[in-house]
Amino acid sequence: WYPWRDRLYCTLDILMHLPRSVFSEKQIDLMLWLLKVNGITDCPSTKEVKDWSRDINRLYGIDTFEYNGALGHVYYVNSISQMLAQEFANPKVRHKLHVLPEDSGPRLSEARQGKRWLHELHSELTTPWHRSGTTDYFTFEPTLATKNRFVIPTRWFTRGDRTFAKCWDMEPVSVDGTQTWRAVVRSPETEVPADELLKSYPELKVHMADFPDLYRNIPTLFPIHHVFHQEDGTCAEWDGVNWSNEKGSYWRQKSGGRPVYSVPIWLYCDDTSGNMSKKWNKHNSWLFTLAGLPRTEVTREYNVHFLCTSNLAEPMEMLDGIQEEISRAQREGIWAWDCSKQDGCGPGPVMIFPVVLALLGDNPMQSEMACHIGLAGRKFCRVCEAENDKGQRMPLGTDIPGGVAPPVDASPSGPADDNDTDNPDPPNAIYDTGSDTSQPGSPVEGTQPRRRHDTERVLRNYITDAKVIGNEGRIEAEKTRTGVKDTFLAHFLEKIKSSYKSHRGVDAQQKALDLFWDKHFKEEEVENMINPVWRLKGLDAHQDTPVEILHVVLLGLVKYFWRDAVRHQLHKKEDKLAELAVRLDCIDVHGLGLSSLRGRTLVQYAGSLVGRDFRAVAQVAPFVLHNLISPESYETWLSLSKLIPLIWQPEIEDIVAHSALLKVEIHQFLLRTARWTGRWFNKPKFHILVHLPSHIERFGPAILFATEAFESFNAIIRAKSVHSNRAAPSRDIAEGFSQWERIRHWLSGGWFRELGVENVMNMTTWKPLPAKGWTRPVFDPDPEGWKCTGMESKKIVNDMDGPIPRYVGLVDRKRLGTSIFLRSG
Ligand SMILES: [Zn+2]
After folding, report:
1. Residue 539 Cα to ligand 1 middle (Å)
2. Whether 272 contacts 714, CB under 8 Å
3. Which stretches does the entry tag as region Disordered (predicted)?
4. In the chain, which residues fall in CATH 2.30.30?
5. d(CA 376, CA 271)
6. Which of 101, 379, 623, 784 is most buried by a 10 A CB count?
7. Which residues are registered as beta bridge partners of 162?
8. From the CA of 383, how far away is ligand 1's center (Å)?
9. Residues of the chain falling short of pLDDT 50
10. CA 540–ligand 1 middle distance (angstroms)
11. How far is CA 205 from each of CA 155, 198, 260, rounded to the nearest angstrom?
12. How far is the CA of 707 from the centre of ligand 1 (A)?
């Protein structure tokens, strides 16, 4: 039963820490009683089990860090470094995990094949190590390739079953009469198959020293004088900060030549509002998954990791702590035990570091991440500079001719809206020709993209403005004009404001402000006053917050249209509504992988259905709405039905053709919407949709960055919250997930470093760990110290008929994210 004491401890430990079964102390008491009266004599007490599992978790679990948030709230974050390290020691994950981007030609089905990872991500943030033959190569090191070419690999990627390096060419140049090198960035970039590399930098240096005759006319390899960009003819300085002439690349030095991998992640945040249970108030939670996992894996609950949650701390406040650990890991690297035998290396120590591929969430959350004013703003798009014409925006639901107030619905299954702020009721004046369609340059079309450096500049200007009395109005006007709004910075601006409020007169106020500023904010801390998202290296929150199809399409467009059909077009037409319900009841959805539809519910509660319902509606609407709604709106439904299978396409055969088709169909859809009524374009989601094709090109099929797996994970967080100690739910929930990560790892056959085993394993000599002053020892590269759980516990997970494999997620409870929108023509 290693590393558990015995069967009883093993099973109790598992039972207590499964994610979806949360027991209170009283329930555990009852279970232990049940065991006792059934003849289990050596039953421990609840307290003994709890103390033991707390200790074993301190030895083997994920650390939970306490942060005093910049906005004044305490929150707890589980160590992302330790979780990533654990994933490398978990054979169920590691064997499926990709660490290199892939050039798959026109095919696109995985995140690693998208442009972002393959081309755009800073080279410094990609995997720096590759082994070819028996030689270890690192990026940003001069390397000798076949045909006597000197190159500097900058990015490894795979194509077919071979690995290639994107390279800078090295060219000798004469600078001030001295022979030296420059690196040339060609366009398109030079590609060298990894097996055509001959000598790594250390080998090359030795060879040059041993055989100087062979290299007679060649300048010494370092320093590289500059980097020349062929495309625009510019030169840049060689960034040699992380370079040692002696030892080579930064990562070669850091890892001592061991493999180093970059681990891209999808980072997700959600604010779950208090609409589920009275005990569940608004919680902000951060979660992540590994973007290097195949699409079928990444959407499994098993692969969703918990970082933090809080009912007090703001999302961006918690991102501060997460960002800090990610940035540290990007600088220092994380040691991990790699259980794989890939790349010609056996199991052994490797170094890894995380990189955020994209930020996921619903639209309001993605706006907040990108320091954007939100969907209700005049500049309503976080991705581009699209703008509502002044006055064009319809006041919320007031000027609809003959407008009817929507009936208040009771919710059948709980509303699952994304709390979007664009709340005007859908138009019922569908034939209103007065409010005509999309004008040229209307907000429906994409415009100039937003860029992080522009936003950062605006935010810095806010701070500068805030230092002078009388600028409040100006800052507000700038927010409207630019659409840049930072909830993180707002906290500090508010503090500044309150410093002079009680004073009278401009001079006195300015004096108070100056005093306050000098006392609390020093110039060098300005960086820490703006959203920490900008401190995440290689991430542009405007461009790297991909369109989330659950909220934009199902809970956006489909919901709008369905609500419009039922609530407005068929309003008070009881016979037609009844017919619609009957049609829904009768339609055969067997082939769509759906269970029979509940017509009455879909009609009666049209305003408060959930994503799952709209998924069904989207597929059957053209059949059930026929002849019931206006021709223009029916045409629009048809167009939407054509679009949806394209959007949910899990495997794209030819991304160029697909993207072109998708753009055409989006355009067609928007045109039909416009012919119906231009008023729909008061809703920003019609615009946001136009950014989807480019996001698919950059991040892979849209279901990869749909948030369904994360959304369903919220139920687990909620369950943990209900049983948490109300005094510190953030900590309790984080510790609960730390325990779960340990159970999951052990039951998955994961490797762990044996620690304090004589202490925890032996009942008679066990002494609890000291509450303070005990820290986990540093990483141990010695293979002797790395273990898996014993045979008996393996039997538990091998018993596929038992409940545990399903609870742990080793067998799917339910497939998520697989497309049911098949292209059926
Ligand atoms: Zn836009």
Report:
1. 18
2. yes
3. 392-457
4. 130-248
5. 18
6. 101
7. 159
8. 5
9. 274-275, 391-444, 815-825
10. 15
11. 22, 13, 22
12. 20
Structure tokens at 200: 């790594």
- CA 104 to each of CA 116, 282, 451, 659, 695: distance values in angstroms, whole numbers, following the listed order: 14, 43, 29, 16, 17
C-alpha 373 to ligand 1 mean position (Å): 13
Whole-angstrom distance, CA of residue 779 vs CA of residue 261: 17
Residue with tokens 């307290």: 47
Tell me the CA–centroid distance for residue 558 and ligand 1, in Å: 20
Task: Determine the 3-state secondary structure of 266 from DSSP.
Answer: strand
Q: Are strands 178-185 and 224-229 parallel, antiparallel or unpaired?
A: parallel
Q: How far is the CA of 613 from the centre of ligand 1 (A)?
A: 28
- DSSP bridge partners of 360: 268
Task: State residue 643's pLDDT score.
Answer: 95
The CA 362 to ligand 1 mean position distance, Å, reads 15
**Ligand 1 midpoint to CA 385 (Å):** 6
CB 301 within 8 A of CB 58: no
What is the distance in A from the centroid of ligand 1 to the CA of 687?
6
In CATH, 130-248 is 2.30.30: yes
Task: State both tokens at 809.
Answer: 């997620």
Q: To 5 degrees, how large is the angle CA 496–CA 421–CA 447? A: 90
CA angle 444, 447, 450 (to 5 degrees): 120
Terminal CA-CA length for the chain? 55
**Would you state the pLDDT for residue 721?**
78
448 CA → ligand 1 middle, Å: 8
How many Å lie between the centroid of ligand 1 and the Cα of residue 697? 16
CA of 532 to the centre of ligand 1 (A): 23
Residues pairing with 272 in the sheet = 283
Half-sphere exposure of 817 (CA within 13 A, CB side): 24
Q: 106 CA distance to ligand 1 centroid (A)?
A: 26
User: How far apart, in whole angstroms, are the C-alpha atoms of residue 18 and residue 155?
Assistant: 40
Indicate the DSSP class of residue 741: H
478 Cα to the center of ligand 1, angstroms: 19
Ligand 1 centroid from CA 364, angstroms: 14
Question: Residue 692 Cα, ligand 1 centroid: separation in angstroms?
Answer: 10
Instruction: Tell how far the Cα of 272 is from the centroid of ligand 1, in angstroms.
Output: 26
Strands 190-193 and 260-272: unpaired
Q: Which amino acid is at 810?
A: L
**CA 634 to ligand 1 centroid distance, Å:** 27
Q: What is the DSSP letter of 552?
A: I
Q: How far is the CA of 387 from the centre of ligand 1 (A)?
A: 9
Show the 3-state SS of 198-223: EECHHHHHHHHHHCHHHHCCCCCCCC
Pairing of strands 260-272, 348-360: parallel
Provide the pLDDT for residue 55. 84
